[in-house]
Write a structure and sequence with these properties.
With 501 residues, the chain is an alpha/beta fold. The chain has 4 domains: 2-103, no CATH class; 110-243, Rossmann fold; 251-426, Rossmann fold (3-Layer(aba) Sandwich), CATH 3.40.50; 429-494, Helicase, Ruva Protein, domain 3 (Orthogonal Bundle). It is built from 17 helices and 21 strands. Helix 8 (262-275) crosses helix 9 and helix 15 packs across helix 17 (473-487). It binds adenosine-5'-triphosphate (ATP) and magnesium ion. Adenosine-5'-triphosphate binds at residues 252, 255, 257-259, 285, 287-293, 398, 441, 474-475, 478. Magnesium ion binds at residues 291-292, 356, 396.
Length: 501
């Protein structure tokens, strides 16, 4: 049903209460109890046109001709062509919102990868309005809370938020104090502030404290959606940048698993199977066989591939620092803790955590690690609460954990928790037929790393390699090749490889 005069009304055939009206005004969003559709587009002549639900919304603050129900008005400033275009868009929009055939690919993608936004406002009306806006038009999952205190409680126990949007003036703790606390405790979480009393000074203060953006009321919905989207994208990019920086010293981490032997084919098959699920995997194998490589491939093929991959090597961190490195700490938790810091487990939130050389985890921390694995929650040193984290855990060890249990240096319950799916990465001597392919692959990789043209290895040298047992497995092979390439006298060919006697 479409009436074109004096105002524009459109009903959706699938939802009896969904009636849209549109008119030119500064627009404010409205929503009805059974239908939350609304849409706004700027007209080409600069006027703004609103489509809103017919049912008055309790969610708007203030009064005025464009705010008070009932939602009627006139479409005055739009040309007929603009109106037709608008009608067409609105019908499409109504269809989409009601699950119709017009849902685009873009929409589908947005739903799958929805980010969670924490929304804070002590005005229930505005809280609801902004929630509906962010959910319906932004496609976000929104956790709406009525105070800064509640926001901090939620953040303390749950990870996974992509951004915080908060009012400034609130009873109790205000938005600026919340901003300070968030910046200190969760420095990577972007925050947008909204205020009724915009002043240059408070804006400068907010930005100085690290707010992502500062918006004045009445909030322009387009602007808010734009800023939330930018905040989330920017922090994702920063995370990716950090991950790339972590890897630049280590180009081999971009690697692929080489080898066509049946044993490697089986390993590849296992990788794709375990990548699809979130189960804990224990990668077992001698030193240098490729356990970390396998862990990265599992992550890279998993639905978490766009989120962080964090590897913590339990051997490489000095004993007294392991706890703080893994679990993080609050400011003042111990001497030297001048600021709060989130641990590596929290860094991996949403992604995958590799506990490398887990057999070397200090015994006194094993119960805490077990608790994290069982509850999916971490407690920073000095924190009052645990925080829920969404992390897929992989563990790797070259040690025989059964004997570590017998020696009393590894907890049996932790072992069983980690060993949900054991995956054995075979030593090189179990698939010698892969040696030539591995040599080719590693030579190309090393030359790329050394920024040299790719060299070839003489058949004599390959034979010598085949006769060697490689106790250090692929890593030893790689080191041997690198040494020989660097020290080789001839250009373009490596004639000899100094095999350890
Ligand atoms: N099948 C393979 N194909 C290609 N490269 C491999 C393969 N296996 C191992 N590598 C390479 O060998 C090196 C050692 O692998 P990785 O660090 O994953 O082994 P690891 O089992 O974790 O070793 P460690 O026990 O010493 O920690 C890496 O450069 C890795 O890319
Ligand atoms: Mg390793």
């Amino acid at each position: 049903m479409v009436h074109e005069s004096p105002s524009l009304e459109i009903s959706c055939s699938r939802c009896p209460t969904f009636q849209l009206q549109c008119w030119c005004h500064h627009w404010r969003r409205s929503s009805g109890p059974s239908c939350t559709a609304a849409c706004m587009r700027p007209g080409s002549d600069g006027c703004r046109t609103r489509l809103a639900c017919h049912v008055p919304s309790p969610g708007l603050r203030g009064a005025g001709p464009d705010r008070a129900p009932p939602w009627t008005g006139e479409l005055r400033e739009c040309s007929r062509i603009q109106m037709e275009r608008l009608l067409h868009e609105t019908r499409e929009m109504a269809d989409r919102l009601h699950g119709g055939a017009h849902a685009t690919k873009e929409e589908g993608r947005r739903v799958q990868t929805r980010s969670t936004v924490l929304l804070v406002d002590d005005d229930p009306g505005l809280l609801r309005t902004l929630q509906v806006l962010l959910e319906d038009e932004g496609g976000y999952v929104v956790e709406a809370v009525p105070s800064a205190e509640t926001a901090l409680q939620i953040l303390a126990v749950r990870g996974g938020f992509a951004a915080v949007v908060s009012d400034v003036a609130m009873a109790g703790m205000d938005g600026i104090a919340l901003l300070r606390a968030v910046r200190e405790r969760y420095p990577r979480l972007p925050m947008i502030l909204i205020t009724a009393y915009a002043s240059v000074r408070s804006a400068v203060e907010a930005m100085r404290l690290g707010a992502f953006q500062y918006l004045a009321k009445p909030v322009d919905p387009d602007e808010l959606l734009l800023q939330v989207d930018r905040a989330i994208r920017t922090s994702r990019l920063e995370n990716e940048h950090r991950a790339l920086k972590d890897r630049t010293g280590n180009p081999e981490l971009f690697d692929t698993l080489v080898g066509g032997s049946p044993i490697m084919e089986r390993l590849r098959d296992t990788i794709s199977k375990v990548a699809a699920v979130d189960s804990t995997v224990l990668l077992r194998g001698e030193t240098g066989v490729g356990k970390e490589l396998v862990a990265r491939l599992i992550h890279a093929r998993s639905p978490r591939r766009d989120r962080p991959f964090v590897a913590v090597n339990c051997t490489a961190i000095p004993g007294e620092l392991v706890e703080s490195e893994l679990f993080g700490h609050e400011k003042g938790a111990f001497t030297g803790a001048v600021r709060a810091r989130c641990g590596r487990i929290e860094d991996a939130d949403g992604g995958t955590l590799l506990l490398d050389e887990v057999g070397d985890m200090p015994v006194h921390l094993q119960p805490k690690l077990l608790r994290f694995l069982q509850e999916g929650a971490v407690q920073r040193i000095g924190a009052k609460h645990e925080r829920r984290i969404d992390v897929r855990v992989l563990a790797a060890t070259h040690r025989d954990l059964e004997s570590a249990i017998a020696e009393g240096v590894f907890r049996e319950d932790l072992y069983h928790r980690l060993n949900t799916i054991p995956v054995d990465v075979p030593p090189l001597r179990d698939h010698p037929e892969d040696l030539p392919e591995l040599v080719d692959h590693l030579v190309a990789k090393i030359c790329r790393r050394l920024r040299r043209p790719v060299v070839s290895i003489s058949p004599r040298a390959v034979e010598a390699l085949a006769a060697y047992s490689f106790p250090g497995n692929v890593r030893e092979l790689e080191n041997l090749l690198e040494r020989s390439i660097v020290l080789s006298r001839a250009e373009g060919t490596v004639e000899e490889i100094a095999i350890p006697s």
